[in-house]
Design a protein that fits this description.
The complex is a heterodimer of chains A (245) and B (244).
Chain A lengths: L2 H16 L2 H21 L4 H33 L2 H6 L5 H30 L8 H22 L6 H18 L11 H8 L2 H14 L5 H24 L6
Helix pairs in contact in A: 1-5, 2-3, 2-5, 3-5, 3-6, 3-7, 3-9, 5-6, 6-9, 6-10, 9-10
Chain B lengths: L5 E12 L2 E12 L3 E5 L6 H9 L6 E6 L2 E2 L9 E4 L11 H11 L4 H10 L15 H13 L5 E5 L7 H16 L3 E6 L2 H4 L4 E6 L2 E6 L1 H8 L4 H17 L1
Parallel strand pairs in B: 3-8, 3-9, 6-7, 7-8
Antiparallel strand pairs in B: 1-2, 1-4, 4-5, 9-10
Classes of the chains: A mainly alpha (245), B alpha/beta (244).
Bound molecules: adenosine-5'-triphosphate (ATP) and magnesium ion.
The site of adenosine-5'-triphosphate has 12 residues of chain B, from helix 1.
Chain lengths: 245, 244
């Protein structure tokens, strides 16, 4: 691995984003719109907005980065640029980590804008500081990126790639405790939800918020999220085959 | 065979694609510092052969050695440049950004990247996003990125397709300049006036090698001075043999 090549790759991915202002606008604007909507959905129940809004700050980066990465990587596969990269001295990890850094930067920007709106304009009130929430949001963004890279290997068109969104993201969103606390679920379903990484993002956010700051459980959960991302990245690396038929 | 003289050695190469044979036991070698033309009808297996040489194609059997190393092995990734048939550059980046990025993978400076862009006649369009380029310009952007690897072996799949005659002549001049510096080039083409510019010609049809000779030798073997005609005759002749 070469740090220089990794950083060049991250720079290249960010430059591609910069040439696509509409995607950037959507990436930054849609979460703001959603969180605003949520604020007025719970107009009469601000404590529910505090709970659900906080979770959304962790879930949105996961969804966005999953989608953007799976399409970006699919393009890389179908336009032949991936094949070209694999004939150069570049290490596969340079590519994967480069993507990781680029989308972590994008997620940090997205998170900053969304949090500023939520805390500054919409009166979101959480026990955890916005900065801590931002750290967890970036971890879930990296997770979304890693899973997006992996699933792009199973899609051969953009149509297929976006279909993985309901498959990969929806069940996790439904089971992570956003809709209803996990204790209210059937036991077997809670076991399944234990196996889903997004569950730990919600748990980390909730726990930090309840205790008014970082907790051991929160750091453990962040560790689990990053470990899951690493596992997905390693599996993704296996799908980057130099030789194809 | 001595691998000192030969940059590429292919022995008994068999490739299957989509469950059927595409290359059937091909054997040839390419001399260092030469320009070798790879010609053949559409679908005859030129791209498949080039992919095998750069090591991105799964092969059924046979042996491919490039610069004394097995094709596709890690030490070769610094010394083999490959230009795919369909331009493989980032459509949402400018020509300059593409060249600088691909160049950086080989440690080329920004200055070298900008010069490579100018060398393929895209100096004016360097700041243009690749998606807005014409087809021929896009192919040249892809070529510039392949040249940036400063390779010892350069595999170019139809590099001059869609280019005007003046540009084609310039590019071929450049290929020969590179060969004079010791670079080995394997170039596929459909255009016969380009075949005449090669040191050596490989003609494949339906996955078999039907000629491996100098342009002069091909003319002599087929009994005509016109290369176009010579290829037609060789292809028809090999078809007759195939049936017999
Ligand atoms: N991915 C693939 N799966 C199955 N068959 C393939 C695949 N790619 C190519 N082929 C087949 O392999 C044969 C050789 O293809 P190849 O691309 O090597 O031809 P070519 O000589 O480069 O043609 P052209 O001059 O049109 O570029 C063709 O019959 C083609 O249909
Ligand atoms: Mg071809």
């Amino acid at each position: 691995m070469s740090p220089r090549v990794t950083l060049r790759t991250a720079g290249r991915v960010l430059r591609q984003l910069r040439h696509d202002p509409r995607t950037v606008a959507l990436m930054l604007g849609v979460p703001v719109l959603l969180i605003t909507l949520l604020r007025f959905v719970f107009d009469a129940r601000p404590e529910t907005f505090d709970r659900v809004g906080l979770m959304m700050l962790g879930i949105i980066p996961f969804m966005t980065m999953f989608l953007v990465t799976s399409v970006a990587m699919l393009r890389e596969r179908t336009t032949g640029t991936l094949e070209r990269l694999l004939t150069t001295p570049m290490n596969k990890l340079d590519l994967l980590v480069g993507y990781g850094i680029a989308f972590a930067v994008a997620a940090a920007a997205q998170s900053a804008v969304t949090s500023a709106t939520a805390y500054g304009l919409l009166g979101l009130d959480t026990g955890a500081s916005p900065l801590l929430v931002g750290v967890i949001a970036i971890a879930t963004a990296i997770l979304g990126m890693a899973i997006g890279l992996l699933t792009s290997a199973f899609a051969s068109s953009e149509f297929q790639a976006v279909q993985f969104m309901p498959l990969v993201v929806m069940p996790q969103t439904m089971l992570c405790g956003l809709i209803t606390p996990r204790d209210a679920m059937a036991d077997w379903l809670r076991v399944i939800s234990d196996l889903m990484p997004l569950t730990y993002a919600v748990e980390a956010l909730t726990d930090a918020s309840e205790h008014g700051g970082a907790t051991d459980l929160m750091w453990r959960d962040v560790g689990i999220i990053l470990a899951a991302a690493l596992a997905a990245l390693c599996l993704g690396a296996l799908t980057l085959r130099r030789r194809s038929s | 065979m001595s691998s000192k003289e030969n940059a590429i050695e292919v022995e008994g190469l068999v490739v299957h694609r989509g469950g059927r044979p595409v290359l059937g036991s091909i054997t040839f070698s390419v001399q260092r510092g030469s320009v070798t033309g790879l010609l053949g009808p559409s679908g005859s297996g030129k791209t498949t052969l080039m992919r095998s040489i750069v090591g991105v194609q799964k092969i059924r059997s046979g042996r491919i050695t490039v610069l004394g190393q097995p094709a596709g092995s890690a030490p070769l990734r610094n010394s083999v440049g490959y230009m795919t048939q369909a331009p493989s550059v980032y459509g949402d980046l400018t020509v300059r950004e593409n060249a600088r990025y691909f160049g950086s993978l080989h440690g080329a400076s920004h200055w070298a990247a900008d010069r490579a862009v100018a060398d393929v006649g895209l100096g004016e369009a360097a700041g243009q996003v690749v998606n807005t380029l014409s087809g021929g310009q896009r192919a040249r952007a892809s070529l510039a990125c392949a040249l940036l690897a400063r390779p010892s072996v350069l595999v170019l799949d139809e590099p001059t397709v869609g280019q005007d005659p003046v540009l084609r002549a310039e590019l071929w001049q450049r290929f020969h300049d590179l060969a004079d510096e010791g670079v080995t080039l394997l170039v596929s083409s459909h255009v016969m006036d380009e075949a005449a510019r090669c040191d050596r010609l490989l003609l494949i049809r339906d996955g078999s090698l039907i000629a491996d000779d100098s342009p002069e030798g091909v003319r002599r073997a087929s009994g005509t001075q016109d290369l176009d005609e010579a290829f037609l005759r060789l292809v028809v002749e090999s078809r007759g043999k195939g049936r017999a």
